[in-house]
Amino acid sequence: MRKLTQTELANLVWKDRQYLYKIEKGKVNPSIFTLALIALALEISLSELLKDVVLEHDQNYL
Questions:
Q1: How far is CA 10 from each of CA 54, 57, 61, rounded to the nearest angstrom?
Q2: Angle, vertex CA 15, rays to CA 37 and CA 61, nearest 5
Q3: Is the dihedral of CA 35, 41, 44, 45 positive or negative?
Q4: What is the pLDDT of residue 54?
Q5: Residues ≥6 apart with Cβ < 8 Å to 10
Q6: DSSP string spanning 1-62?
Q7: pLDDT tens across 8-58, in order?
Q8: C-beta of residue 17 within 8 angstroms of C-beta of residue 6
Q9: Which residues of 8-33 are buried (b: 16+ CB within 10 A; e: fewer)?
């Protein structure tokens, strides 16, 4: 995995640094395309990027 600052990563994936911060904090839901770009920039697989994600669900969506 590449070691990048948020600013460097933001530049590589054509997103604002604040948007990446919001992704990291779980405040926004990025598209699968954005997640794939992040994985590519970090030189890891998408599955590796998502391996520790814990999903919370609302019973209203089931």
A1: 24, 28, 32
A2: 70
A3: positive
A4: 78
A5: 16, 17, 19, 20
A6: -----HHHHHHHTT--HHHHHHHHTTSS---HHHHHHHHHHHTS-HHHHHTT------GGG-
A7: 999 999 999 999 999 999 899 999 999 999 999 999 999 999 998 877 776
A8: yes
A9: ebbeebebeeebbeebeeeeeebeee
Residue type, 36: A
Residue 35, token pair as written in the block: 């997640």
Amino acid at 24: E
Q: What are phi and psi of 56, to 5 degrees?
A: -110, 140
Is the entire prediction scored with pTM above 0.85? Answer: no
Residue type present at position 50: L
